[in-house]
Amino acid sequence: MTFCLEPRPSSAQDQKKTSAKEDRLSGTVHTIDKDTSSIIIRKGAVQRRVVYNPETKFSIQNKPGSIDDVIVGRQVNCLGSFNDKSQLMATHVDVRSR
């Protein structure tokens, strides 16, 4: 008697578990430099640089937005991945308050 075992297709839930999770930074916008496409955000005494590019999606309170919605003093949540300089390469920036 011969048995043939086929691999079971993975479920969507299993695929979600293995997908890479994006890094996240949140804080208050301290400075914006459009010439270098970067935003400095501050959380307490810690400042971090977030770098954006033309593919970065911007939103304001979960509605479509632009870099012009990123204003000094506003709260932001940034998603992306860290580069070798410990800068967040943003894929999405959401402005939380006006």
How would you describe this structure to a colleague?
- The chain is mainly β.
- The chain has one helix and seven strands; from the N terminus they run αβββββββ.
- The protein has one helix at 12-18, and strands at 23-33, 38-43, 46-51, 57-60, 63-64, 75-82, 88-95.
- The chain has a five-stranded mixed beta barrel.
- A hairpin with a 5-residue loop joins strand 6 (75-82) and strand 7.
- The protein starts with 11 loop residues before the first helix and ends with a strand.
- The relative contact order is 0.23.
* Spatial arrangement of strands, main beta sheet: 1-2-3-7-6
> Which fold name is given in CATH as the topology?
OB fold (Dihydrolipoamide Acetyltransferase, E2P)
Gap from first CA to last CA:
71 Å
Major sheet = 5 strands, mixed, barrel
Give, in order, the helices and strands: HEEEEEEE
Q: Whole-number average pLDDT?
A: 85
